[in-house]
Design a protein that fits this description.
Number of helices of chain B: 2
Number of helices of chain A: 10
CATH superfamily of chain B: F1F0 ATP synthase subunit C
Radius of gyration of chain B: 16 Å
Largest sheet of chain B: none
Order of helices and strands of chain A: HHEEEEHEEEHHHHHHH
CATH topology of chain B: F1FO ATP Synthase
Structural class of chain A: mainly alpha
Strand content of chain B: under 5%
Helix content of chain A: 55-70%
Order of helices and strands of chain B: HH
Number of strands of chain A: 7
Strand order of the largest sheet of chain A: 4-3-7
Oligomer: heterodimer
CATH class of chain B: Mainly Alpha
CATH architecture of chain B: Up-down Bundle
Helix content of chain B: over 70%
Largest sheet of chain A: 3 strands, antiparallel
Number of domains of chain A: 1
Largest interface: A-B, 13 and 11 residues
Structural class of chain B: mainly alpha
Distance between the termini of chain A: 53 Å
């Protein structure tokens, strides 16, 4: 948790309890530098699109260039601070943590995959065993039971990637100095957009565009169409929206509870509170570990279930016919 | 301004109340079903998690609204 560890250089009594807690809350959000505890590792580039692409090495060189300035974590025009930029695509600390999660995933799987490339028929062991058990769990418990027919076999790689990416991002958030990239709504929204595309494109491919449109009618009699079509159309978008909010809120809620428990010490300004806070924090961190796995599982299984529903009866009939 | 905080706190509490009732009812039904037919337990567990995730999702919408009230 990055938040807990920023106290070293700020808890020196200059700010009151409320100020310190405000500071911790800011630690939950995105940063423009990548830091390990309070040691700054690198400044991150600022990329701004606003009547042309502007790229700066870091936030200070952006300030010096004189076009834009930072105000309450938002980049605004220097001459008109009320107006924000059109599009802020900066590489922030959460983007870095996302990349770190990607690198960890790629390294883990290429290490495990090397053994398969050698073609030995020995029983798997070590890392290979660990990953293989999780991969087969995803296939046998999540993908195959929920997505009927050949679509399940074709889509399984997407679900492995989804599950492990979310899981590793969540677990990076539990490392000391780490930050869960899934605690940002932008990350979870991007993941939900991929699942939205997978759900609908698979449905169109498997049961045809006509059936997909027929699905929008919901199988109701024609005089209900003026109610059914808007409801089904909205439900297309509420599914990925719920996925977005669920993952984001679960990851953020864990951080906020930990922050509140730590904040009790500062707020009550008493050493007696420390054992209580630490005890509850350990319990919450154990719970966060469970939540990290559970949320990766829930995001993946819900995407699989929605895909199965979107494909609908058509594919099932085809399977029975075979 | 203070009323906004009151509203947000009450709203979050009410949302949690509803979600707690829903998930509790769901879990009790799933446990009863699993006790009747233990061989279906793993299938029931998956369905229970899916349904509880949907209930939780609705509760989280409410909590996000409450959170937005306090930070607007």
């Amino acid at each position: 948790m990055e938040v807990e560890n920023n106290s070293a250089n700020h808890g020196n009594g200059e700010v009151g309890p409320e100020g310190a807690i405000q500071h911790y809350l800011a630690g939950l959000s995105d940063h423009r530098t990548l830091s390990f505890f309070h040691y700054k590792i690198i400044d991150l580039p600022v990329i701004v699109y606003d009547d042309g692409l502007h790229i700066y090495k870091d936030i200070n060189s952006m300030e010096q260039a004189g076009l834009f300035t930072e105000c309450e974590h938002k980049i605004v025009h220097k001459d008109n601070p009320a107006q924000g930029v059109a599009f802020d695509a900066s590489i922030t600390s959460l983007v870095c943590f996302e990349w770190i999660a990607m690198i960890i995933g790629v390294v883990l799987f290429s290490l495990a995959g090397r053994k398969y490339k050698k073609g030995t028929v020995k029983a798997p062991s070590g890392l290979q065993n660990l990953l293989e058990s999780v991969v087969s769990f995803v296939r046998n418990q999540i993908v195959i039971p929920n997505i009927p027919g050949r679509a399940g076999h074709k889509l399984q790689h997407y679900f492995y990637a989804l599950f492990f990416f979310i899981l590793i991002m969540n677990l990076v958030g539990l490392l000391p100095g780490g930050h869960a990239a899934t605690g940002s709504i932008a990350t979870t929204l991007a993941l939900a957009i991929t699942s939205f595309l997978v759900i609908n494109i698979t449905a169109m491919k498997e049961s045809g565009v006509g059936t997909w449109f027929k699905h929008l009618l919901g199988g109701a009699p024609w005089w209900l169409f003026f109610i059914m079509i808007p409801i089904e159309f909205i439900s297309l978008f509420t599914k990925p929206f719920a996925l977005t909010i669920r993952l984001f809120a679960n990851m953020t809620a864990g951080h906020v509870v930990l922050l509140s428990l730590t904040g009790l010490i500062i707020y009550l300004q008493s050493y007696l509170m420390a054992p209580v806070s630490v005890g509850f924090s350990i319990f919450m961190l154990a719970l966060e570990l469970l939540v990290a796995f559970l949320q990766a599982y829930i995001f993946t299984i819900l995407t699989a279930v929605f895909t199965g529903i979107a494909i609908g009866d058509h594919a099932e009939h085809a399977e029975h016919a075979n | 301004m203070d009323l906004v905080f009151l509203a947000a706190g009450l709203g979050a509490g009410l949302a949690v109340l509803g979600a707690g009732l829903g998930i509790g009812k769901l879990a009790s039904a799933a446990l009863e079903a699993a006790a009747r037919q233990p061989e279906l337990a793993s299938k029931l567990q998956t369905m229970m998690i899916i349904a509880s995730a949907l209930i939780e999702g609705v509760a989280l919408f409410a909590c996000v609204i409450c959170f937005m009230l306090t930070t607007k």
